């Protein structure tokens, strides 16, 4: 659908209209000096004639180039990654007309930044122009793209003709999928086996995978003497971690998860860490599931493995956002009790700051055992810790601030201690370390066969 908008006056038209003010001022000043109104009549008549002529010319120029026919199409991927530059292409086709300098703009959506626009392109008659730029979404969810606007000058340059093209398209803004692809080093084949060697446990039983040459850092107990005798070289047995285990990511969508860490909502950081670990788990042959809740259950995805597991996980989570209601952890526990019969690793992302909510969380963690293995993940508040560890201040008010910050940090450490005593594995880390530390905990659970 094409929208024909009113032409926009240019600086040239404004300047021409302003030229009529000069004779008007002169005629008025002459009439005041001569004390004769009749003396200014010729000048007024000339001014009126000038204005009429300017009006006729402006109207005629406004009608020029209104019949220009330009077709516009937008090539945008249906799935965009949040915070990344996603390539978009506009194709402009002029079937007939004349040489034009076209200015274009893409309205996109309210929370999508447009990089590379507005810009101008030169178009010849019966020609096509391709314009490339990028969308940078700022939040996840489904978005409806807006209009594309074109402008070009009238023949005399007194107006800018403008036209809008309703190229409506629904796009989905997913978490940072490009970042997941750049972390393939974590997902390289055999990495879980390398982790097993790095986290050896005495007497651990794993599944035999293959024989390989002995390395200096290998455990001598893994040497296969029969194979060594056959090959006349030291050979060791390499084992792989147990596969087909279940991991459920439980996402707290309550009000504490709406806070931001370096400009990014804590919930988004939790979701990114869950997707990274989920991709590693699927690559390792495990099954992944999702539970999201605030004051009620929002999403439940039963654990699944295979090639489509990550696609299902991302589709279930891309439109989830934390809300300003209090999270009810008992809802998550009840869901897991009724829908998750097989023992699983339950990774709970939450942010408990209120001591009154601590008891509920500890009770939920205890309720998950011994059927499941709980891992509680939370972010450290680096700004608060900086206040608590700052140098002593002479300002009394600043001392109170430092004391309050230190008390808050100690309360968080108490909560983490209570959760560990309740049997949970606690990951309480800074934002930049969260994903990597969480992956290490997962590998440690696999190696130690805690599931």
Salient structural properties:
Immunoglobulin-like, 451 residues, Rossmann fold, alpha+beta, single chain, six-stranded antiparallel sheet, 29% strand, 3 domains
Task: Kindly describe this structure.
37% of the residues lie in helices and 29% in strands. The strands form 6 sheets. Strands 1, 2, 6, 8, 11 and 12 form a 6-stranded antiparallel beta sheet that branches. Strand 11 and strand 12 form a beta hairpin. Helix 2 packs antiparallel against helix 3, helix 9 packs parallel to helix 10 and helix 11 crosses helix 12. The protein is elongated, with a radius of gyration of 34 Å. The relative contact order is 0.09.
Major β-sheet profile: 6 strands, antiparallel
- Average of per-residue pLDDT values: 83
Helix content: 25-40%
**Number of beta-strand segments:** 23
Anisotropy-based shape: elongated
CATH top level label of the largest domain: Alpha Beta
Break the fold down into its secondary structure elements and pairings.
Blueprint: E1 2-4, E2 8-9, H1 11-19, H2 21-34, H3 41-62, E3 69-75, E4 79-81, E5 86-96, E6 100-106, E7 112-115, E8 119-123, E9 127-137, E10 141-145, E11 148-153, E12 159-165, E13 169-174, H4 177-182, H5 191-198, E14 207-213, H6 225-231, E15 235-240, E16 246-252, E17 260-261, E18 264-265, H7 266-283, E19 287-293, E20 297-304, H8 309-317, H9 329-339, E21 345-349, H10 355-368, E22 373-379, H11 382-388, H12 396-421, E23 425-429, H13 434-448
Parallel strand pairs: 4-13, 16-19, 16-21, 21-22, 22-23
Antiparallel strand pairs: 1-12, 2-12, 3-5, 5-9, 6-8, 6-11, 7-9, 10-13, 11-12, 14-15, 17-18, 19-20
Helix pairs in contact: 2-3, 7-8, 7-13, 9-10, 10-12, 11-12
């Amino acid at each position: 659908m094409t929208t024909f908008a009113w032409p926009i006056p240019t600086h040239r038209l404004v300047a021409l209209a302003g030229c009529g003010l000069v004779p008007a001022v002169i005629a008025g000043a002459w009439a005041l000096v001569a004390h004769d109104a009749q003396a200014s009549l010729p000048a007024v008549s000339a001014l009126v004639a000038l204005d009429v002529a300017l009006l006729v010319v402006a109207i005629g120029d406004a009608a020029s180039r209104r019949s220009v026919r330009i077709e516009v199409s937008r090539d945008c991927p249906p799935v965009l990654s949040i915070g990344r530059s996603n390539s978009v292409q506009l194709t402009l086709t002029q079937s007939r007309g004349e040489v034009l300098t076209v200015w274009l703009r893409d309205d996109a959506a309210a929370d999508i930044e447009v990089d590379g626009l507005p810009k101008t392109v030169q178009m010849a008659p019966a020609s096509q122009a391709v314009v490339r730029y990028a969308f940078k979404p700022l939040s996840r969810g489904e978005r409806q793209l807006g209009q594309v606007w074109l402008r070009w000058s009238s023949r005399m340059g007194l107006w800018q003709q403008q036209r809008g093209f309703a190229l409506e398209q629904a796009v989905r803004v997913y978490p940072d999928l490009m970042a997941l692809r750049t972390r393939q080093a974590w997902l390289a084949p055999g990495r879980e086996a390398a982790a097993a060697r790095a986290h050896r446990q005495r007497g651990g039983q794993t599944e035999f995978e293959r024989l390989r040459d002995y390395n200096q850092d290998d455990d001598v107990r893994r040497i296969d003497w029969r194979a060594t005798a056959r090959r006349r070289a030291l050979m060791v047995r390499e084992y792989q971690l147990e596969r087909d285990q279940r991991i459920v990511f439980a996402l707290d969508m309550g009000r504490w998860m709406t806070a931001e860490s370096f400009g990014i909502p804590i919930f988004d950081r939790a979701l990114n860490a869950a997707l990274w670990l989920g991709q590693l788990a699927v690559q390792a042959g495990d099954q992944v599931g999702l539970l999201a809740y605030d004051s009620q259950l929002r999403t439940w995805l039963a654990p699944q493995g295979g090639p489509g597991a990550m696609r299902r996980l991302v589709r279930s989570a891309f439109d989830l956002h934390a809300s300003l209601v209090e999270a009810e952890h008992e809802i998550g526990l009840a869901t897991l009790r009724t829908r998750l019969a097989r023992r699983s690793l339950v990774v709970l992302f939450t942010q408990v700051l209120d001591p009154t909510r601590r008891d509920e969380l500890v009770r939920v963690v205890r309720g998950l055992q011994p059927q499941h293995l709980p891992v509680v993940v939370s972010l450290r508040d680096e700004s608060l810790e900086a206040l608590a560890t700052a140098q002593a201040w002479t300002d009394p008010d600043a001392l109170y601030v430092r004391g309050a910050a230190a008390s808050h940090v100690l309360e968080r450490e108490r909560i983490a201690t209570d959760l560990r005593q309740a049997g949970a594995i606690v990951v309480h880390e800074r934002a930049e370390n969260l994903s990597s530390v969480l992956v290490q905990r997962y590998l440690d659970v696999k190696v130690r066969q805690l599931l």
